[in-house]
Design brief:
Helices cover about 40% and strands about 15% of the residues. By secondary structure, it is of the alpha+beta class.
């Protein structure tokens, strides 16, 4: 599983950024040469991922920090982002101190939101992975109708890419494999449980038939 070490982010006030700002660099750990300490990755590289229809209505959304603590605030933010991006040809926007990358597909708009200092290429890799994974899962029908009919699968895809704001995977083939594995490993479905219960009932009744 790919971890966010591929995109190491310095923590505020640490390392070279602190030295450039005139602040002290953090002390090296025991046994580390001075000045060679590696930066630890940021825990929250993604703030939110959401998908809207072509009227700006929410279809799927996950927020990974408390920038917008209520659903109402989230939906106001989504509507403002949609109004800013839905009529442009660009793939990146800066809004409210955040970096937003986005992609349209037929009657859908897909968005990935990061902080203002986040790497746009990293955000775009998440967006591309999300789109390509959905494209495979929906058999190249990345549109509102098919998304709504496969919403559980869409959430599984997103959960395999981002967990708690941390990027777990950016390879769509790996995402699809893991989603398929989780689906196959999910145990009995409601339908199969009902079938087993019906079979047990038939066998039970069979034992009491007069010719048995």
């Amino acid at each position: 599983m790919q971890r966010p070490e591929a995109w190491p982010r310095p923590q505020p006030g640490e390392g070279a950024a602190a030295a450039q700002a005139g602040g002290p660099a953090p002390p090296a750990r025991a046994g580390e040469p001075s000045g060679l300490r590696l930066q630890e990755p940021s825990l929250y590289t993604i703030k939110a991922v959401f998908i809207l229809d072509n009227d700006g209505r929410r279809l799927l959304a996950k927020y990974y920090d408390d920038t917008f603590p209520s659903t109402k605030e989230q939906m106001v933010f989504e509507k403002n982002v949609f109004n800013k991006t839905s009529r442009t040809e660009s793939e990146i926007a800066f809004f409210g101190g955040m970096t937003i990358v986005y992609k349209s597909s037929i009657d859908l708009f897909l968005y990935v939101v990061g902080s203002s200092h986040e790497n746009e290429l990293m955000l775009m890799s998440v967006l591309t992975c999300l789109f390509e994974s959905l494209n495979h899962m929906l058999r190249k029908n990345v549109e509102k109708r098919w998304l709504l009919e496969n919403m559980d699968g869409a959430f599984l895809v997103l959960d395999e890419i981002v967990d708690g704001g941390v990027i777990l995977e950016s390879d769509p083939q790996q995402v699809i494999q893991k989603v398929n594995f989780r689906a196959d490993d999910g145990g009995l479905t409601e339908q199969s449980v009902a079938q087993v219960s019906l079979l047990r009932l038939i066998l039970f009744a069979w034992n009491f038939l007069p010719w048995h």
